[in-house]
């Protein structure tokens, strides 16, 4: 029996650079999607996208493109 996989959509990905390392993420992902995929706590992050600080309010609307370079800084408490 052959299965009809016409409704199965192939996951198209793009490659970005996260903290100097290549990373593949689904096309049409935004910065918030990346944070969720990396399982990071958003409240403790600062993000630079292509050498510019990205305001937290823009994370959801900022779409990622192939070749984007992100630096993600994760703050930790302590003394």
Which H/E pattern describes the elements? EEHEEE
Unreliable stretches covering 5 or more consecutive residues:
none
Distance between the termini: 64 Å
The number of helical segments is 1
Q: What is the number of beta strands? A: 5
The largest pleated sheet is described as: 5 strands, mixed
Radius of gyration: 16 Å
Q: How would you write the strand order of the largest sheet?
A: 2-1-5-3-4
Label the structural class: mainly beta
The fraction of residues in strands falls at: 25-35%
Mean pLDDT across all amino acids: 89
As a percent range, the share of helical residues equals under 10%
Task: Tell me the overall shape.
Answer: globular
Topology:
Elements: E1 13-18, E2 21-26, H1 31-37, E3 45-49, E4 52-53, E5 69-74
Parallel strand pairs: 1-5
Antiparallel strand pairs: 1-2, 3-4, 3-5
Q: Notable features of this structure?
A:
1 helix; 79 residues; 5-stranded mixed sheet; mainly beta; 5 strands
Provide an overview of this structure.
The chain has 79 residues and is mainly beta. It is built from one helix and five strands, in the order ββαβββ. The chain has a five-stranded mixed sheet with strand order 2-1-5-3-4, with no helix packed on it. The relative contact order is 0.25.
Short summary:
The protein has 79 residues and is mainly β.
């Amino acid at each position: 029996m052959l299965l009809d996989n016409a409704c199965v959509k192939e996951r198209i990905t793009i490659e970005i650079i996260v903290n100097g390392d290549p990373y593949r993420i689904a096309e049409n992902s935004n910065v918030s999607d990346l944070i969720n995929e990396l399982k990071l706590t958003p409240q403790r992050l600062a993000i630079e996208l292509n050498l510019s600080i990205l305001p937290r309010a823009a994370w959801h609307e900022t779409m990622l493109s192939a070749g984007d370079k992100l630096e993600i800084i994760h703050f930790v408490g302590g003394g």
